[in-house]
Amino acid sequence: MKYQSQSVAKLYFIAAIALFAAQILFGLIMGLQYVVGDFLFPEIPFNVARMVHTNTLIVWMLMAFMGAGYYMIPEETETELFAPWLANLMFWIFLAAAGATVAGYLLVPYATLADLTMNELLPTMGREFLEQPTITKIGIVIVALSFLFNIGMTILKGRKTVVNLVFLLGMVGLAVFFLFAFYNPVNVVLDKFFWWWVVHLWVEGVWELILGAILAFVLIKTTGVDREVIEKWLYIIIAMSLITGIIGTGHHFFWIGTPEYWQWWGSIFSAMEPIPFFMMTVFAFNMVNKRRREHPNKVAILWALGTAVMAFLGAGVWGFLHTLSPVNYYTHGTQITAAHGHMAFYGAYVMINLTIISYAMPLLRGRNAANPPKSQILEMWSFWLMTISMVFITLFLTGAGILQVYLQRIAESPQSFMAVQDQIALFYWLREGAGLVFLIGLIVYISSFFVGQSDPEAVAAD
Amino acid sequence: MAEAFTKSMARNIFYGGSAFFFLLFLALTFDSLGQLPNRDNRAALEGELGPVIAQGKTLWEVNNCVGCHTLLGEGAYFAPELGNVYKRFGNSTDAIKGFILSRPKDGIPGRRSMPQFNFNDEELTALAEFLKYVSEINTAGWPPNIQG
User: Is ipTM over 0.90?
Assistant: First the structure.
């Protein structure tokens, strides 16, 4: 850690990991409810568990992105953060808002929460992933704007690099597109159309800029490859992300009442969306192969390579599987979507956040470069446990999805949704088993922060 | 990458490409918005049942129905698609109201069950009319069959 103010990142990273743990626990609850339908009913109905699962995911992504920003930007700009106190203050506001929101989900019926938070004044609740009370959404905007102000001012007074510019651009896009969360017309088609301006333009748009910038930063630091080379790659990868991803939004406009021409635009452009992810994989392996130094933080490099591979598989390959409109006609709104969602989110965004945490945390905790070998080895175990179990979660959901599509939508005498669900229960049991292995991986991950603390830290082999 | 391909070329592709395709996206958006009146069943919203449908959408939202169900394929995959439930239930709003009303308070042992929301008749009508309105949106022939 070169700049004192980078230390604010630590709080954000710790909270991110805590929310990650909550996300996984509620994921396991939902997974069990898929096969034991009355589990925790009516205390924690499925929809409540799902809100906690997806909303803690979103919040911990944002927490980790902000932590990454507060860590990277001072180092990239070669100056202290503009206002570390503001970063600290915003952390506590964000954490309190997130905590209160999750408590609201769990303690009162959702309709009561809508009442208590005066949703009727500006109704924004009750839409997938945007379930947060309006007041929480306003809080997210305030936190995001403060963050942008803080790192924007830091960049203004310091060195401008491609990494901090791309990161800033990604975070500005994140804030701007989130504003569409406040548009909620009665017209369902319009509602859905602009809902995707938040959801798609986040995860298949501006978030890829954030992902690229963080990956570039960690590769610059750990491989010692010339910044010029890495920045050129970064530009071309994010160029392909937006060139394919913006019109690629059209793959959500096939069946929601929008004109049929979206089937062409959406199919063609989203079929190209795997390209930037493939380039990212080539990029990450190339840079590591051309490394000019042996960085002692081996596990951070493992995460960096892992995110490049898994983002390509989850977002690229599993996205392509069902993105062409003639295929999507049958797979839309089935477990195929869930399979893709799990691996894409894990590969692209969970793993990039664990990459920057893995790189930065040892430094934030006062080490020179890396954790002791014992701690790194444990973290590598967690990498493989979580990653392999996520591959299996995805495969089992894909199996469930193929059967669901066939029995419910293709077979000669199509069966009802619930009748089909009963028949594919085996796959849900297997998914839950894989989910338990993921939890073990997460426990190993968290414990890696506590082992070998008094050991000397790892040094480079050369 | 070849030396001839410089960083500033990559940067220009990024800014130029993103700007071009974002503008194209905006153009397509405006064109879509122009076509929606013929597809999105807004006549129902502008008719005398408009306020009832609006109330139904509010109830749909504040009870987080999308946390279990899909609507036009979007939402959670825990419970049946509801975009076409009006048609699946024999084009009957009464059947929809009857189903919601009949959910057991304590669930069904071992199985998934929709919670009992204790809606009054006005609210049930609003929800059913909302679902009827959605079922009459032109969705390009989706879902493939009545099972959703």
Answer: yes
